[in-house]
Amino acid sequence: MSDKELLKKVAEDLFDDFSALYPLSDEKVEFSERHRERMKKLFGKKNYFAIFYAVPKKILIAVLVFLIVIVLPLSVKAIREPLFSFFSETFGSITRIFSSEKEKDAWLDPKIEEYYELRYIPADFELVSEERTEIFLSQTYTDGDNTFVYDQKKLGKGSLVVPDGAEIIDRELAVEGTEILYYKYEGKNVFLWNTGIYELKLTADEGIPQKTLEKIAENALSDRAVEEKKVLEQTEDLVPVEPVTYPPETLPIEFPFNLPKGLKILSWEDGTLSEEDFYFIVTVGNEDGKRIAIFDIYSSDADWVTTVLDVEKKVPINDDIVVSWFEQVRVYMWSDAEYSYQITFLSDYMSHEQVFDMIKELYK
Q1: Per-residue pLDDT tens over the stretch 142-194
Q2: Whole-model pTM?
Q3: CB burial class (10 A; 0-12, 13-18, 19+) of residue 356?
Q4: Of 276-280, 283-287, 300-304, 311-315, which gets the smallest average pLDDT?
Q5: How many whole angstroms separate alpha carbon 195 and alpha carbon 191?
Q6: How would you classify the pairing of strands 291-299 and 147-154?
Q7: Which candidate, 333, 312, 303, 304, places its Cα nearest to that of 91?
Q8: Cα(326)–Cα(310) distance, rounded to whole angstroms?
Q9: Would you say 343 and 334 are in contact if contact means Cβ atoms under 8 Å apart?
Q10: Exposure string (b/e) for 64-95, b if CB count within 10 Å is 16 or more?
Q11: Neighbours of 191 (CB within 10 A)
């Protein structure tokens, strides 16, 4: 007799024993109107609780034993969570990936850790109102004829959303390396962008030129960003240092992927910042040396947070492994007991199906 058959037999025997000791009663049970109304409020519908009063308590216990013994073993696999799956949060077309639930909870705390102040205010404009709390900053400036409002808050659900009826002017307005969503809504020009942690927004009267708004946005900086900008300005004449790359045969770990024909490891870089957590960046390319993909391999227990400008799709590889797939930007991220991985394709050399086949091959 199999385990499943044994469990079923035990439950049936229990049910039969209780049925013999406590047969169903034919007596009609009546309840007061007040009691019935309270039950309706509690359960919503009378049918949901009627059976609990029609069947004696110990018969009900037998039924519950039957359900626990039989149903749970049969449904464990269906409700089982994968052992290795990243925590994520998607808002708009951006997904934030976290290495742990602890990292996610900390990031989703709406408290503002650093305020992005406006370091440039157009001539004749004055601050006329300000609301500054732990979770929100809003400032209103005017020159008497035109007004603009600057807002800052933590990224989260509902962030970076364009209201219905808005006219999109430019989805990727480039301002000093930052992509800004520029749209018109209810007679106002709106700039919407993010720092990776915070959502920033300018809402301005149409009388304020676009170039002026761009300069305001360019100079919405935190104190830390101001210091970084000063350092960059002081060193802009220096020759940038290229990252050190190493030949494939010196990679400290065994490269676990079986690359398709025509691809090979070109080089690797060491991005390790501490002795506890390693981080290797492996560049894969074709026979001509053209870069095709970047394979990031790092410690599976390292704490990190990353932002991907795409909507996450979760693709199960097996019962334990789930890949976070970002189709538009061709990024694949997942973790197992030994490593965490991120593959970023720089071209469409491999189809998505081929990539997933390569990943699945690791866990056969």
Answers
A1: 999 999 999 999 877 666 788 899 999 998 898 887 889 999 999 999 999 98
A2: 0.50
A3: middle
A4: 300-304
A5: 13
A6: unpaired
A7: 312
A8: 6
A9: no
A10: eebeebbeeeeeeeeeeeeebbbbebebbebb
A11: 26
